[in-house]
Amino acid sequence: MPTAFITGITGQDGAYLSRLLLGKGYRVVGLLRRSASSDVVGERLRWIGVLDRVELMDGNLTDLSSLIRILQACQPDEVYNLAAQSFVAASWQQPLLTGNVTGLGCVNMLEAMRIAAPHARFYQASSSEMFGKIQAARQNEETPFYPRSPYGAAKLYAHWMTVNYRESFGMHTSSGILFNHESPLRGIEFVTRKITDGVARIKLDLARELSLGNLDAKRDWGHAADYVEAMWRMLQQNAGDDYVVGTGRTATIHEFCKLAFGHVGLNYEEHVVTRQDLLRPAEVDILHADPTKARERLGWTPTVSLEDLAAEMVEADLARYRAGTRG
Ligand code: NDP
Ligand code: GDP
Predict the structure, then answer these.
(1) Is 129 a catalytic residue?
(2) For the chain, which domains are there?
(3) Considering the entire predicted model, what is its pTM?
(4) Per-residue pLDDT averaged across 229-251, rounded?
């Protein structure tokens, strides 16, 4: 039975990846950072039905010694580094923490592996935010980077260190440059989930309006369940490499609002208000993936349309409110 170690196991992707790997017969070990709210940290793993099937080990991505001890104890075949301060907007408020966790945290994981599990395969959760102010209409592995936030800059450092450990030490390291991916387990602060949560509240007469920022930004949105499959496929290749993962379709926030509100028969223009304080110091106006390499080398294609994604997220948020378990 192969062993996978996942940092960020309590996040959106951690839950979907755990379910995928357990289904493939893996032993799944996850990094759990200490929290005073430890009763709710496993909520996503519980929601997806795997909380009692994964092993959680205490540590922190910023504490190298904890990572070394965990690797020595569980001897993984594959390491998925998903942990990060992952919210772009927060990265301007906490740029140093973002650098420490999202940037240096990756190097802590690579160093821990070099010391304690040098033959394990490594996946780094890189991001389309590294393209930032885009240098090509469609972004692929050859497109130059131009990050626009402390988050994007931290991810870029982690990306290049992942490449560097591959080239310097011959380690099997892969960087998945993933475009935005969403699901009912997406953090509530991200725009898609904020919208579907707002739709549920408005539909159930718990609210009348929803405040958003820049509605003209365009994103290439897919479903997290599809994207964790791409992560796993990268680590099954003979050598590590870099891959862009996205749908190849881009849409505005307006369009996502239209789909989500429209799913329950509402007109978003009657409910969405824009607020200046929700605009960002620097914006990524448009992201649009060219996922040709992932399709050709990994045989990966997305399976969930934007329409179905929005509908699934709205239904899940309605169900949470009806059951009294919003979260
Ligand atoms: P989430 O924000 O849902 O999850 C982040 C995870 O990181 C949580 O498990 C969190 O733990 C953990 N974490 C944060 N800080 C630390 C720390 N110091 N030590 C240990 N664990 C920590 O992110 P997603 O699941 O959406 O994304 C997974 C990864 O992919 C992230 O690195 C993200 O930046 C990246 N990514 C995501 C994209 C997306 O569209 N979702 C697109 C491209 C890249 P806790 O639960 O305790 O907070
Ligand atoms: P990001 O692409 O990782 O930054 O994902 P987000 O979901 O946080 O943001 C996607 C886009 O939605 C960005 O261009 C934001 O400026 C835009 N946006 C507009 N209104 C909001 C809002 O209220 N919250 C968030 N999070 N994003 C918003």
Answers:
(1) yes
(2) 3-181+221-245 (3.40.50.720), 187-219+250-323 (3.90.25.10)
(3) 0.98
(4) 98
